[in-house]
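To start, an entry.
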Amino acid sequence: MINSLPGKEAKESFSIFHNNIRSLRSNFENLEEYLFSNSNFSFDLIGISETKITYSNQDHIPVVPGYNFEYVPTPLAAGGVGMYISNTLDYKILEKIQHRLFKLHG
């Protein structure tokens, strides 16, 4: 669709992609190939669910050049969410709620 937009509109568009990746570390290469190898287009936000990022493995998060990664780890064997955010965007994290959730349930 982006290829059908005139030049100015394409530059002013805001794009979001989401993928349930079922383990970011295990399936990152597939995601990277899908998003970046066949297209000159880059997304502003890349949402990832089922990252399986836990407190014990959060030191091994794949890097995407040109993006910051914000995430909430999971205390379980499944779950976790994250978002690659383009470096061209000015953003602010309002609150990461995982601490509050653990206090309610733990």
